[in-house]
Amino acid sequence: MNAVGMTLEEGFKHILSDAQALKALKVLGAAASVATLYKLAGYILRELVLVPKLTILRDVEDLHKPRKTRKIPGRAVICGGSVSGMLAAAVCADHFDSVLIVEPEAWANDHGFEIPEKRSYRTTSDGYQTVVQPRTRVMQYFAGNFLQPPSYMTLRHLFSNLPELLEYFGLSSTLSVMRLKLRYGGIYSEDPHHDADDPKALTLGITREAAETLIRRSLRLSRPNVMFTTGTVTRFIRDGGHLGGIAVRTEAGEVEEWADFVVDASGPTQLSFTKALNSAGFPVSPALRVEYNPGMRYSTAVWRLPEHVRAKWPVPGGYKLGVILNMTPDSETGDSRVFGILNMECDQMLIATGGWNDAESPHSVAELRIYVKSLYGQENLPDWTWTLLDFLEEHEEECSPFHAEARVGPLNWIRWHQAKDLPPNFVAIGDAIMKLNPIYGQGITKACIDITTLDAILRRIPSSLPLPNLSKPFFNREALRVQGLWDGTKANDYGFPNTIPAEGEDLSHNTFMRKWGRQCLLLGREDPAIYSTWWHVTMMIAPGTDLFSPRVMIKILLRKWLGW
Questions:
Q1: Does pLDDT of 431 surpass 60?
Q2: Comparing C-alpha atoms, which of 487, 497, 509, 498 is closest to residue 442?
Q3: Buried b (16+ CB within 10 A) or exposed e, 390-402
Q4: 105 to each of 87, 110, 230, 353, 547, how far by Cα in Å?
Q5: Cα 206 from Cα 512, distance rounded (Å)
Q6: CA torsion sign, 131 to 134 to 136 to 138?
Q7: CB-based contact 372:378 (threshold 8 Å)
Q8: What is the reported pTM?
Q9: Which end of the chain is more exposed for a tag (fewer CB within 10 A), N or C?
């Protein structure tokens, strides 16, 4: 008897007795119900718990919306005027009557809202050209940034004039759907967003110089209640159980500024942790900071390409902005060096080299060719890589590139969420909480996570003084959102033997996380859904728990154990 075309019930009756068929159908029905309930529970857990807690996707929609009540009748003081400080000032300006930014470098306050037309260069003792940095406190000022989607989401909501500012600086063409051909050691993958213009995938491909200038000008034009002053914050001033102000060293001497809310945006200086809170009578335990040292350095070669050079660009598709090549080392291969080429704003091309284990960087195209040929997996680079190097060598003297060196010191996380008896009107943001390895390009996005979290906390408080405890809820919520950044980057850094681990750890710490991510990449070459999951988690637009969903776990375990 032919069973083709039978219903499920008819099929069971064909091979089983009526009683057996009825029992089997009941079991299947129950299993289907359980599966549906399980799927529904997973959806509810992810969308209502994990996404709001571990990402800013819900909170970012509220940025720059008017408060339900009037602004808080007080002043917020921001200690530091770099990217995180300016973003914090924009948020605080939406919630407080007035905001003061204290920035140590006069150049940033006086000239940092326009991209300089000219730069000053010097020749090093090793014979290559470098640049005189106007922002002396920003190590990677001339490095490229490929800002992850949360950065663009944050800037788009925070500054309604963003499109006009992008056009003003000639940066509108840097906004794109990320198309990144990733080379992670011997694993080669392509970005999942080939054709669709997914709004959550939009990124900004610009230099740190342009990013900081764009944000500073946006802030000046959109928040008239933000004031700037030049000076160095030396200490905090206590007023009862709160902070009442700060002391600032200026050219005219020390002055005191009153504050109802204090934000530490001092960057790697970590002012509040190192001295300011202690000086105000709020003791901070040194045990709050966990620190390790990846022992790495890198260099950015910056080329300015004239029109006739861009017109002859030998890469398929012509000269386009964005990441055109990215080669990241896989610690499993024994290599520890990076290689990347980015086409940035103002007709600039950036070449990144260097890496862990104190890797040396080349300073000419001839040296670069030798460098690239010695990389693990270089045989799988596209053919145009070598054509491009030949092309650049022909124009090296004409373009006269300069090299910006960066040595990455110890990285740390101050676990403020574990602190006791902090002043209720104090928070820290950006590098003042966590200094990440800059090679991963997550610093600005991490600052966006921090200030979006701060905005959500400020929206919950009444418009009155003194402020309720903002410190504890902010640090608790922020820690959940950045824990994955710390664990993920540290796990990767621990794969390189010269990394000095944190106290109480060795380089085997978090090995599972590094290997699990690698398995996701390996499987993702053949399974677009797995790669898309990995990409969204890496871009911080999905909770890290997505990489441990049953679908991902089953596929990886089947591949690893059964060879499927």
A1: yes
A2: 487
A3: ebbeebeeeeebb
A4: 17, 9, 7, 29, 43
A5: 34
A6: negative
A7: yes
A8: 0.91
A9: N
